[in-house]
Design goal:
By secondary structure, the protein is α+β, with helices and mostly antiparallel strands. The protein is built from 2 helices and 2 strands, in the order αββα. Strand 1 (19-26) and strand 2 form a beta hairpin.
């Protein structure tokens, strides 16, 4: 299981090989803050996701 340390763990293993995107959202049902990570090796995919999340 991954916890809040997922970002740190992936950076140790993959370092500069992956693009990382953090998305902060509020769950519309519970009203709680949530944090999502997207990891990809494709700069193109990262650009697409960043465009959608902004």
């Amino acid at each position: 299981m991954y916890g809040i340390d997922i970002e740190e763990r992936f950076e140790k293993v993959f370092s500069s090989e992956v693009e990382k995107i953090k998305v902060f959202v509020v769950d519309p049902v519970t009203g709680l803050n949530d944090l999502f990570f997207f990891f990809t090796r494709s700069l193109k995919v990262a650009s697409l996701i960043k465009g959608i999340s902004e």
